[in-house]
Design brief:
Chain lengths: 527, 236
Amino acid sequence: MELIMKQNKSFLNIGNLLLLLAVLVALNILAGRVFFRWDVSEGQLFTLSDYSREVVSNLSDPVTVKAYFSRNLGQYNNVRQYVKDKLADYRSYSHGNFTFELIDPGDDDEALRQEAAGFGVQPIQMQTLENDKLEVKLVWMGLVFLYGDKKETIPAVQQIDNLEYDITSLIRRLTEPTPTRIGILQGHGEPGLDDRLSMFQEVLSKNYYLEPVDLTTVHHIDTGLHALLLISPNQLFTAGDKALLDEYFMGGGRLGIFTNSVETDMQTQQGTARVLGLEDLLSAWGVSVRNNLVMDQQAGMVQVRMGGQGLMSMFPVSMQYPFFPRVTGFNRELSISKGVEAAQLFFPSSLDTSLASRAGIKVEPFAWSGANTQVMTNRYELGIRQQYTAADFPDGRQLFGAAFSGSFPSGQHEAALLDSMSINLPAASPENRLAVCGDGYFVMNDFLGQRQLANLELAQNIVDWLVQDEGLINIRSKVVTDRPLTEISAGSRNVIKWLNILGTPVLLVLFGMIRWQMKRTRRKQEL
Amino acid sequence: MQNSLVIFRKEMRAYFNSPIAYIFLAVFLVLSGWFFFSTFFVINQASLRGILELIPVFFIFFIPAVTMRLVAEEKHSGTMEVLLTFPIRNREVIFGKFLAALALVSIGVALTGTYILTAAMLGNLDAGVTLAAYLGMILMAATYMALGLYASTITSNQIVAFILGILFIFLFFYFDKMLVFLPNWLVGTFEYLSVDYHYRNFVRGVFDSRDLIYFGSVIFLGLAMATRKLAERRWS
């Protein structure tokens, strides 16, 4: 007993406690220098992907990164550490060709601030409390990538989820000898790049150079374009336009076609068939965007004023709108739809791919509607305030997106027209790629709005697939932005909710009461 | 270790032979469930982010409620003196009590597993992230437990132990929330000291040796200080 007390007394006196503290502090400092990480997230979100390793290990000349990061970033402080770790990861695979330095422009180092501004890194305002006053402080959190005389900048890193994608894209852009060019077709009522496609342009321009292509002003489509996108045209294509498209496609240029068959007017809540005149050309290539409008029971929400009188009519109500299908039926095996859990389409039309199969073209459908739809073919009533029931969706699953690859036959054109345009069409294209989606609105600003949708990821995947840049898809698909729940009835939701809130506690209390009762009985028996 | 297990069993019996454990667990689960499921279907995502952000805040209050009685009550009722007459080391007493309190909170956390099942059945839940986050949650609970246990050794008044426990835990929770008010040279240290800062890595699905070392260090230091305090009482 005395011995034990002695041990107790000698262990952890104040001197030993301080020594212990010092050892723990030293251990933590050491751990900061020598550490390991094990990433168990799906898709290894925080581990450098194989593609990023490949890009950085193939660098032939040095890339230098200047990371302008303030030391004190308040709520963004974890970003600083994350960026530092991520850059260190890149460095470790670069065979010495990737270096970085962390620079704090500080409060009073004007030269460094000027330098950061010169590279396009602008400070961000952050509110702080100093001397009992709320003050606005400037902080820096930008990255500058230097390669020879070229530079690329990320002005502010506020989100870390996409950082690897951004960094790898920038390294590629800096180091690729010829830029990858994507044409956006104009001249047939398509949305403008700087206008309704600006969000789409912003995400795509991380990797590609986007340029408008107006068929009315060119004699031939530039074969240097790696891909051409037709996004929601709504005016007739002339025979000459179609010949130019066919010439480009038969020459090996990749095509992405995002188009609806029905023009919609929300004022009259009616739709009318679009006349594009592309049907024969698309049929020759093995695909048809059907003349229909698909309503899907699995749909996104819209804000609607219900009309009528009274207070309730003043406030918008959220309701499902079947003309905005929420697409979750993706082929997850294909790179084109990899990592996309859900996207939303707007007034889509379905696709028919039967012709392609007959022509020996490889078809890979990648996006479908839900199981319950209504396919409208003649009258297009867009009733936005209508209450829909299960009986309104008698039709089955519809195809919205498909990828085609192989050698495509050319379309039929008048010989005189081809001669006059100096176009020599081969009977079939070399190995080529075509992606078709029965909706062009899904990448437009006015439809995307503030919605947190994976539409742009899907569009990026399609473009990456077209230009065979599937390494980028692998990085982007690591970030799953949307993990929607399976649709269940309101009643089932309530049951699940209350079972989870009260089920376990009630069982627990019951268990306690039974245990208490059994104990009491046992005690009585003992007495 | 054998003696710690004896203490552990004694504490567990004390919890489950009285209404303490049932009340604690039921209140914890009803509150967690209520807050989580009030938004789960609205957000419509197979994600446990809500509960992962919520439980650390609950811990600030629930853990001192568990730890406040561990030593303070025994001291107040005089049973600690009886306990300390047995041939058992202070650190064994502290460790046994720590394990029991941690087991109780871990049972509470494990019972939120029904939320995991629900999210996994209704959507594509990230299993790796969930596993890491739950481990991070247990490590966070253990850290708070060590701090709360230390608070309980300082006083014989349970209310004071509860308030001190909240204070210590809140301090470690809040370290990285006050960085904007600090001079630059202190930012790194305060950030590193924050439990929440290290917990966030687990929530992302990343096991980082730096976080494991941090949690281990604070737990060890908290238990050592509690042991030291108990020794002082023993000899005072």
